[in-house]
Write a structure and sequence with these properties.
Distance between the termini: 20 Å
Structural class: mainly alpha
Number of helices: 6
Number of strands: 0
Shape: globular
Radius of gyration: 16 Å
């Protein structure tokens, strides 16, 4: 595995964690602290902020350049969070479930690559740990009624497609 491949992994993961914090900020801006699931969302947001901080530190330590698309991820993440919260609490949870489903797949693919090459045990352990948190977020969102959101299959599919596109862009730009 090349240094550039490792840098792409770190860059895209940091961008994803940053985007997740912005989604939760948008949701909480609409819901306030008393909305359905607000406390749960705030807890997820805190975990995502911790993940982002660890990736920020890893980027600084290893000299990984951040994506130049960070301003786009900031605006898009916040808008997605706010829009889904405006639709309703189930739509906010549908957003979380869809994003975390895609991140689970993304992190699993990265772990497979890291384990097959044994290139970076530190990064692999970090991703494995974060993947478990993302799975917990997905499961909590599903338990909180994500699938009851209006047009759930369409909403979740569109969000997952957007996540896949964002991943590909952040890896390269």
């Amino acid at each position: 595995m090349t240094k550039e491949e490792l840098h792409r992994m770190i860059r895209v993961d940091q961008a994803g964690e940053f985007g997740a914090t912005r989604i939760y900020e948008g949701q909480l801006a609409v819901m306030g602290d008393r909305g359905p699931h607000a406390a749960e969302i705030a807890g997820m947001a805190a975990q995502e902020e911790g993940h982002r901080a660890k990736f920020d530190a890893l980027m600084a330590e290893r000299g990984v350049r951040p994506t130049v698309l960070a301003p786009l991820w900031s605006a898009a993440g916040y808008a997605l969070g706010a829009a889904t919260a405006l639709i309703g609490p189930e739509a906010a949870m549908a957003c979380t479930a869809a994003v975390e489903e895609e991140i689970d797949k993304h992190y699993s693919d990265q772990l497979d690559r890291l384990e097959e090459t044994n290139a970076d045990p530190e990064l692999a352990a970090m991703i494995a740990d974060f993947r478990e948190d993302e799975r917990e977020h997905r499961d909590a969102a599903l338990a909180a009624g994500a699938e009851r959101a209006p047009a759930y299959p369409l909403l979740a599919g569109a969000i997952r497609l957007g996540c896949r596109a964002a991943i590909k862009l952040a890896e390269r730009v």
